[in-house]
Amino acid sequence: MRYLNWILRAVMFIVLLGFAVKNDQPITLRYFFGYEWQSSLVIVLLIFFVAGAAVGVLAMFANVLKQSREIAALKRDVRVKDKLSGIDDTQQPG
Question: How far is CA 38 from each of CA 15, 23, 25, 27, 45, rounded to the nearest angstrom?
């Protein structure tokens, strides 16, 4: 399985390298007030891909924090119920 993973990584690297080599022409991004930025197409695509991934991670961050607080509260409830029923940590199965 480890070798298959490395083969897939190598294939992905070669495909992305070929994409980068074939799309190296300069482009111009035009902003408001006459501001322009010239760069390679691959660089611009990479920047926007990374920005999109960062926005996606930030969008999920609040949900992950909420779930971790809920998990902590549920674990605390289980410990309280176990303590009330007389089961301590050494007697739990598993």
Answer: 25, 14, 10, 6, 13
